[in-house]
Prior knowledge:
This protein is α+β, with helices and mostly antiparallel strands. The chain has helices spanning 100-105, 121-134, 142-162, 170-184, 191-197, 202-212, 217-235, 240-246, 252-263, 267-274; strands at 3-7, 23-32, 35-38, 42-50, 54-59, 62-67, 70-74, 79-82, 86-95, 114-116. Helices cover 44% and strands 23% of the residues.
Amino acid sequence: MPSWRLDIGDIPRKNSFPFRVGSIYYCKDKVIPALKREWDRFEVCLRLSSDLGLTEDIVDGEHLKLPCPNVVWRLPGSTWETPHPAVRSVISFNYSPEVIKPMELLGMKVQRIAWHFVMTGELELLISRLRSVLHHIHTPGATDAADWLCFCIMGHLLFRENMSGAETSEESRIRNVSVWFRMHFAENVSIDEVAAANGMSRAAFFKAWKKNFDVTPSQYVIDLRLEAAARSLRETNVPISEIVKDVRFAGEYMFYRRFRQKYGMTPGEYRRRNS
């Protein structure tokens, strides 16, 4: 009956991905005792199996019964009670409450607190990859991979729940592009290619983007690179010249100029004040 919990919130990351996992829990065929708890964090919990074939909860005073597998979204301030002991297999991960708003801005709003889902090959692979990464969590880059895999699991579940056969809305496509930018800002980014990949002309893409963001796509990517550089300055001793290359900035002069515009000081001053 293996079970473990990993607290990874304080492990340094290499990128500026905003959805940083606090802790991850896994158990297989473990007796979950009857308990009652008020949540102060945002948790995503996948109940993969149960000896009863279903799970029973009391959420803010209301009974909830669901067949397995199912997913529950525990929101800050909610009270969850397990009325009876049960043998379950579970994987869960949690975040600080601050991630809820950026999720909703990306169109990832939790409409229901729980539902039954069908285990797909894609979801099974994501869970398997997450478990594999966690065995090497102190390897450089592993926490970044764990953050991304947990985010993909959330996205997969929300997408399948909300999928209605309708075409993806223009706003959803733009929000998905913003997520893509967050994961690929350190690469060569072609706005024309991004627009075409999302079925839009350059003009249509810029028009749709402007409806959802106050900065241009290019400035959005630049800001992501500057934020990643600032994080490296705070958390590492990597030379500034290497950071410029890592975040794919077009030369040190432009980097220094943009950094000072955004943070009001040079990268060296920023490191001395924030290390």
